[in-house]
Structure formats: C-alpha cells, structure tokens
Amino acid sequence: MPTIIATLGAADANSLVDVETADAYFDLGLGGGAWGELDQDTKERALVSATRDFSAILRWDGVKASSTQALPFPRRLNGMSDGLSLTSNVTAAVCEHALALAKGLTAPPSERQSMRAEGVLSWSMGNRSETLAAASGETLSDPADKLSAPVRALLTGWFRVAGTM
Predict the structure, then answer these.
(1) Cα(first)–Cα(last) distance of the chain, in Å?
(2) pTM exceeds 0.70
C-alpha cells in the first residue's frame, strides 16, 4: 500500500489530494458509487497516478509557490490563485481523473488523432478541408488528450496545450 503524502507544497508530496478529500468530493456527486466501490489501496494509487499525470503531461501557467515543492501546486496565477491553497476546480480535476484511471476510463483518441496515426495528411468534405501537420510517433497527440473533456474543462486557465486542443 502506498503512503500518500498530500501536504500542499511539501518537497516529498506525491499527491495533490488525499483519500479523505476525494471521499468527501465524491460523496456529493454522481461518481460517489464508483469511487466508493474502490478499496483504500486503489484510491491511493489512483490519486498518486492522477497527480503524476498532472505533473508530467501538463505545462502549467503561473509559477510554483515554492522552488522546493515536489508538485505543480500550489501555484501563483493572477486571477486564479495566490499560491496558498488548491482551488476547488483543481481538486475536482484530480479526483475525476483518479476515478477515470481507477476504472480504466481513458479518453478515446479523437478523429483527428486517429487520422494522423493512420498517416492522413489532409482531408476535405464539401467546402471544408484541413491539412494535418506531419507527426512523428511522439507527437501524434497533445499530452493533455489523455485527460477527459470534463477534467480539461475543470482546469481551464491553468495549463497550456502543446498545439491545439
């Protein structure tokens, strides 16, 4: 069983949200049943994995509150946060992504991603057309595409995408 360290701003933190906070979040929403079915170990692993995804795949706007903190939050971002706490939207995004990871619900590739993976360079339909940038295996999609649309919506204003979303 992992030891979850969700102390905001800590140098050894491995999760932005602890199980108790996630339990409270899901008690109020539709995902509560699915989250409640998970055992403690799976919940902890899901929260740590969600935090790892947020740390590894997103390019965050603003600046970390401290140069010694292990995780991307707390952050200072004008109009969004003073860097002292975790906003409710970020907490919700971590919880929702953790549940999706635990249940194996990852975002399916978009039609554009599928076409690029198949080598399509351009397409047209009626008076609409698009030329897709040639892509290497590493750049077939934006890393943020691993996140569901609701999670990306919760994080609006917090991160930059690589290319277009």
Answers:
(1) 36
(2) yes
Highest mean pLDDT among 53-57, 65-69, 138-142: 65-69
Spatial neighbors of 155 by CB under 8 A, at least 6 apart, are: 58, 89, 90, 93, 147
Segment 82-126, tens digit of pLDDT:
888 888 999 999 999 999 999 885 544 556 666 666 777 777 888
Question: What whole-number distance in Å separates Cα of residue 41 and Cα of residue 148?
Answer: 23
Could you tell me the two tokens for 156? 């609006």
Three-state SS letters, 45-94: HHHHHHHHHHHHHCEECCEECCCCCCCCCCEEECCCEECCCCCHHHHHHH
> Is 4 in contact with 19 (CB distance < 8 Å)?
yes
Q: Could you tell me if 102 and 41 are in contact, meaning their C-beta atoms sit under 8 angstroms apart?
A: no
